[in-house]
Amino acid sequence: MTPDEFAPGLPDRVMKKAQWRLLPLIFLAYLIAIVDRLNISFAAATMNEDLGFSATVYGLAGGIFFISYALLEVPSNVAMMRFGTRIWITRIMVTWGLISAAQMFVQTPMQFYILRFLLGAAEAGFFPAILFYASLWFPAKWRGRAVSRFYVAQPVSQIIMGLVSGPILNLDGTMGLHGWQWLLLLEAIPALAMGLIIWKFLPDNPATVTWLEPDERLWLTGALAADAAGITGTKHDSVWRAISDRPVLQFGLFWFFYVGAVNAFYLSAPQILGLKTGLDPGGVGLFIACGGILGVIALIGFGWLSDRRQERFWYIIIPALVVAASFITFAFNPSPVLAGIAFLALAATWLPSQPLFFSALSETLHQRHRAVGIAAVNTFGQFGSFLSTSAFGYAKDTTGSYDAGLAGIAVCVMIGAAILNQIRRKTASRP
Asked: pLDDT digit string (tens) for 9-49?
């Protein structure tokens, strides 16, 4: 059947069904992943003091997470293609929940390094897996909105962490545990539960569900096939050739500088905001929650505008320049008010630009190697995160200030924006 032979309004009806059935599950899973990845940043101040960890130790441990994540990103997604998305996401969530909780028993730097390495290994492949899963259900015309809506989990995680971390840390001394131990334990339990929910309720693909009518399934599979046929990316015969494809390397280099640099900030964000704004831990938590609310609004708006205009690159490049300006403000301006404004500008641009980046990437890759290609690009970001996080902690101990590291992040983001603009120009020049 041709698109004109389907009932009017059928595509929108199918997309609404898919969003209501799938995005809540993906959203919750991703939300828990971000909480478990970033809760260490809220635990850091009291944990480092209790255990005597320096900024260098903390930065190296934070960076080690990204090393194992990067090394196993592509192998994890190769395994996912063999075992299926649903089963593999379940495996990831259960193992990372157990390891995340085990961090509460850390006593020495080496124990901290080992558990952060294992946590990165457990979580490796999760984000590319859910991006690939979204590409199995949402044609390119709707994908920007769909990815942005589950990506809302990132700023929502900031809201949740900002609101609940303070009260949990106040449990210090309860049952003989430190507040940071309670934080790591209580925020790991949802991962275990969500892994089982994913295994039970997340469908593998459109052909296996009963909540789509036959004509709805026919339209969806046809639309996805038409997208795949229209992709100009090369269909490679091996995983290695897919990884080494030029677009993958170009996008990966941007991601190395962009996400790699900014992740160093977010691993220490509560401490930096406290120093720059003069707020106490409770005030910092509320301020981060406000940034999360702003990020939710911007994410939804960016995704809608990008799909409406069928434009990806400028919705990434311009926010990247705002992000760079925010870090320059952090590094060189002593005003608490301007520091607060810089953080809110960062919250409104940093996260909203990310799902559009992956939408642009997925639209250039052949479906056969899309999961592996996304994983490879994300691997660049993980290596960048390791280097920047480790260097960020070392710079803090060496200079006694976060300012040099913040300025370095700004430079990296500007380099990334320049690289992406080159990709945009080459893409626009193609016939």
From this structure: 888 888 889 888 888 998 898 888 888 877 888 888 788 88
Cα–Cα distance for residue pair 3/264, rounded to 1 Å: 47
Q: Please check the confidence at residue 4 and state whether its pLDDT lies above 60.
A: no
Give start and end residues of each alpha helix (H) in 103-152.
109-123, 126-135, 140-151
Instruction: Measure the CA–CA gap between 427 and 415, rounded to whole angstroms.
Output: 19
pTM (two decimals): 0.69
Residue 209 near residue 57, CB atoms below 8 Å: no
Q: What tokens does 408 get?
A: 């370095």
Q: CA dihedral in degrees (277, 278, 281, 285; nearest 10)?
A: -20
Cα distances from 65 to residues 61, 136, 146, 163, 387, in angstroms, run 7, 29, 28, 25, 11
Query: In 152-280, which residue ranges form alpha helices assigned H by DSSP?
Result: 153-169, 179-186, 189-201, 214-230, 239-243, 246-266, 269-277
Yes or no: say if 258 and 416 are a contact pair by the CB < 8 Å rule.
yes
List, in sequence order, every beta strand (DSSP E) within 243-363: none
**What are 353-371's pLDDT values in tens digits?**
887 887 778 777 665 566 6
Q: What is the 3-state secondary structure (H, E, C) of 36-89?
A: HHHHHHHHHHHHHHHHCCCHHHHHHHHHHHHHHHHHHHHHHHHHHHHHCHHHHH
Please give the average per-residue pLDDT across 217-225, as a whole number: 86
CA dihedral 35, 39, 41, 46 (to 10 degrees): 160
Residues 6+ apart with CB under 8 A from 8: none
What is the residue range of 205's domain? 3-428
- What b/e readout covers 18-54, taking b as 16+ CB neighbours within 10 angstroms? bbebbbebbbbbbbbbbbbbbbbbbbbbbbbeebebe
Q: How far apart are CA 117 and CA 119, in angstroms?
A: 5
CB 137 within 8 A of CB 212: no
Confidence of residue 115 (pLDDT cuts 50, 70, 90): very high
Question: What stretch of H or E contains 395?
Answer: helix 370-399
Query: Domain of 381: which CATH number?
Result: 1.20.1250.20
Place of tokens 């702003």: 294
Q: How far apart are CA 47 and CA 106, in angstroms?
A: 10
Count how many domains the chain has: 1
Q: How far is CA 360 from the centre of its chain?
A: 16
